[in-house]
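Lab notebook: predicted structure, single chain.

Context: the supervisor wants predicted structures on file for every construct in the current expression panel, including those that have not yet been purified. This is the next one on the list. No modifications to the sequence; it matches the entry in the shared construct table.
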Amino acid sequence: MTDDQKKRGPAATQIAATGDEVRRNVVRLRKTRGWTTYELAQRMGAVGRPIPQSGISRVESGGRRVDADDLAAFAVVFGVSPAALLLPLKDSPRERINITGAGIVPADVAWAWASNRRPLKTPSAEVRSAESEYALASLPPNAREARLHPVGRAIEAARDDVTRLASYAGWSVEGGSDQEFADLLDQARTSLDRARAEVDRIAVERNELSMLRDGVGSKTGEGGGDGQSVD
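Prediction complete. Output recorded below exactly as produced.
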């Protein structure tokens, strides 16, 4: 233990819920790739974040913490998003995930947060303002503008509803009803119609602007092209 860790206390060396998930995901991804701990250590060294084979073994057993630089390098080596290391591969609303600092949250909410789509916990009365603040603090300019645009909001809602609909097959095994499916289907259709309407509205506005611009251009071109009348 370093002097800095001693000053910060036991929390500096203990692995909490998310750190433990990272550990399990390193094991999962390494085995999925068919690599030994030695091969993973070699690949980490190749990307400039060397961790000896013994260090990899300690990461997997929970004896070594994974810091931010380790996490980024692991994601690069495995060819995955950092979120694939931070969370388990489950996203049903009926499943729960333990996140350090947040506690137990629905799996789909956890993945929406990790995918930079919305805040982790938001009181229902403050959803719109919280999402705007989240986008301002979390997204670069182009992505933020797209997310907060009415079209972007409509598409996000449609994606969420379609995801829930697509996962219904898994829910039905747990006792989902025909009415539940019908409700999900109607909600997804409504969201898709709303997204389509927003896109169509933008297309109409763009077309009207183009026609107006073309009309102004043709008028300024009359009379010899210099804007002066010709007798």
